[in-house]
Structure formats: structure tokens, C-alpha cells
Amino acid sequence: MDCLSRRGHSNVTKTMAQLPKAMLENIDNDTDVREYHEPIDLSMAENWLIREEVLGIGKLAIEKHFDGHHLSMPTDFWGNPRLLKLLANLFNNYFAPKIPVQQAHIAVSSGAATCLDTLLWNICNEGDGVLIPGPYWNGYDVHCRNRSATSPILVSFPRLQDAFSMALVTALEKTFASSSCTIKALILTNPHNPLGQCYPKPVLEECLRFCQRRNIHLISDEVFALSTFNPSQVDLPETRHFVSMLAVDPTALDCDPGRVHVVWSMSKDFAAGGIKLVRAAASITKTDIYNS
After folding, report:
1. What separation in angstroms does the CA of 62 have from each of 36, 44, 53?
2. CA atoms within 13 A on the CB side of 130
3. Residue 1 — very low, low, confident or very high, per pLDDT cuts 50/70/90?
4. Which of 8-17, 54-63, 225-234 has the highest mean pLDDT?
5. Using CA atoms, how far apart are residues 247 and 260, in angstroms rounded to an integer?
6. Which helix (H) or strand (E) segment is 153 a member of?
7. Do 148 and 117 meet the contact criterion of CB atoms below 8 Å apart?
8. Inter-helix orientation angle 167-178/201-214, to 10°
9. 181-210 per-position pLDDT tens digit
10. Distance (Å, rounded) from C-alpha 10 to C-alpha 17?
């Protein structure tokens, strides 16, 4: 790797060491098709139930609406204006935002992982810590460490069910106080991955107040937002309706809306993990960014 810079060499070495062996073994495989009859891989979190429906909608949309202007250079730094408008409509219709989502609140990136990486790179310094209630998706370890060089800090609980109660805030305070590094952010996965539960709104509000007290950012990873069961139709204890962080009004809680970031992707809700399209919505405007 003599052709790489020091940081490039470090990045490649760390990344390759964390990739699953099976992924590296398939690098020369020219087939990229998995059939329905193959064993279900629960580690992939792919939604095959609506794949045929989504495929049909996609083909029809391309046939009827794909035009030359779709191949042109983007006209807006933050994303295609029509796409931003459609995304704003989606969030306003399905995420019940307390503050209506505007196009100016949205930035588009090439996947949820890229969005998270970009957020951490810009709000954290090298060596800063990021609180993540456990158990958490192991991908956070990679996305925190590889480029932004931040440290994922596990927030643990005496009992697993405490993760969705007010005991979460107590655990956050305890972990924050005992951390040996500077904490810059809290990541919540809502609906939770891997537990699949949703956070009650009062708990989300207290998490926001915690972040305000500690002067840190709150990142709400909501990639499973529209993939939840209706509690009235599921015979499972502790099943709750999904409440987005967008449904919490930070100004009513005397919290800074510029420190709240919501990440959402098509990958789970629209069975399109191979299409890297995501949005990060925060209650900030482009003017706020320019003036900061």
C-alpha cells in the first residue's frame, strides 16, 4: 500500500479488518442474485415481502417518467429540488412532525451510513465519544471509528426493558459522567435495532432535554420508521406506535433544534437496500448553516 497516504493506509487497514469474511470471499463472484428459495438471512434486514411490488412501481415510473433532465447535473447543492419536495411531503404525511418539514430542512446523501458518517465527521473531533444505548447494531462501530475516528460509547442497563423507560436518561447521565472522552452526540435507533421496539414520546423528550443539558447533538436513526406493526393488531407485550423525533417540538422544551438530526433511508421501508438514497432532516435552515 505504498501508493496510499498515511490516512488512506490507516483507513483501508481498519476497514478491511472489519469486513465479514464471507463478503471478501465473494469479491470475484460475478453473480449478484439471491433467490427467494434460499435460506432467510436475518442478519441482512432486507424486506423481500414487498420487493416485487416495489420493482413493478419502479419499472413503471422509469418507463413513463424517466427523461433527459434526470441525467443532468444537479441544480441544488442539497439535492434535487423535486426530490426534496417529495421527501418533505413524505415526512409531513407519515412522521407527524411538530414543525412542518420544509425542503430547506433536508439534505440528501448516498445512503444512511454516509449520512451518519458525514454528521459525525462534522460535529465531532477525533477521539470524541458518541453515546449509543445497547444493545446496538454493530455497524455503528464501523461508522463511528473508520473516518470520523470517534468512539462509540455503550450505554448499558440493569434490565433490557429499561432501555425504553425513563431509566434510559439515568443511564445516559451515568455514562456521560464516567466517560474518559468528550461526548459530542447521542445516537438513538428508533424503531430500535436489534430489539425492534419504539421509544415512547416522553422518553424521547427527556433524551432531548439530556442532550440540551449536556450541550451535545441528538441523532435519531429512523430507517425502520414505516416498517412497524400496528400495536392493536399484534399480540405482543410492550408494542408501541412509532413516534419520530420530528414529532417532538424542541422549542417547547427549550432545546436547540439545530442539534437534532433525523436520518431516514429507503433501504428498509421501501425494500431498496441497494439504492443508496437517504435524507437527514434537522430543524435548521440553510441560512443557519451559512451564518454558523
Report:
1. 25, 27, 14
2. 28
3. low
4. 54-63
5. 12
6. strand 151-155
7. yes
8. 20
9. 999 999 999 999 999 899 999 999 999 999
10. 11
Instruction: State the cell numbers at 233.
Output: 393488531
State the distance between the two ends of the chain, measured CA to CA, in whole angstroms. Answer: 39
Weakest mean pLDDT among 62-66, 80-84, 91-95, 284-288? 284-288
Please check whether residue 261 is in contact with residue 249, taking contact to mean a CB–CB distance below 8 angstroms.
Answer: no
Single-letter code of the amino acid located at 75: T
Q: Where are the alpha helices (DSSP H) in the chain?
A: 6-18, 21-25, 51-65, 81-94, 112-123, 139-145, 167-178, 201-214, 266-269, 286-291
Which cell is 291 given?
451564518
Q: Could you say which DSSP state residue 73 is in?
A: P
**Distance (Å, rounded) from C-alpha 190 to C-alpha 109?**
20
Which residue, among 229, 227, 230, 262, has the nearest Cα to 247 in the 3D structure? 262
Q: Residue 264: which region, alpha, beta or left (left: phi > 0; alpha: psi -120 to 50)?
A: beta
Q: At which residue does the C-alpha cell 449520512 appear?
A: 115
- Cell representation of residue 12: 483501508
Model confidence pTM above 0.85: yes
For the cut 70, the answer to whether the pLDDT of residue 237 exceeds it is no
